[in-house]
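Before relying on records like the one below, remember that each one covers exactly one chain. Contacts with other chains, cofactors or solvent are not represented anywhere in the record.
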Amino acid sequence: MRPLWLVFLCCGALSACMTVHPTAPPVAVPWVQRSADLQHADAWQLAGRAAVAVGTQGWQASLDWRQHGDAAELHLAGPLGVGAMVLKETPAGLSLNGAPPSDAVLSQLQERLGFELPLNNLRYWLLGVPDPGSAFDLTRNNQDRAAQLTQAGWTLTYDKYMMVSGDWLPARMVLVRDAVRVRIAVDHWDGVR
């Protein structure tokens, strides 16, 4: 019977001979195709954090966005869930905290947040692409992704990306309009397709 240490030594030697194949970097997709694909992405969600400064006032919140076709759901909650709100946009309209859709929601939302949330554009901006429905100005970085986007009176700066399912999606962005500054840090993306 062979000593046990000899068996372990042989196993160790064999494992040292294994070849590790490096994973190939994702194939770079041209900006025009990438942006069109992302603009048509209709099932995704992200989890992250937002820090908002409006003039001298400010607040922070966790941020969860879920997109399913034409329906979007946005959850914002302060520390320990304080000031939590759920905003849902469907073809039937915009609703806040489970109330029926109403035209008054936009003004209620603006009052609570301290600024007008660019909800229609945000669906695209979070993915790092312009809203295809209005004019924009875009500067791309060396990796052919959005670096700065100006649209609907807002200027967005994308300063960090993360790998998600073979593509690079925004991990950190800053939105600025007049006295409003919104910093968004994305912790997790899921289901972008």
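The first strand starts at residue 43 and ends at 54.
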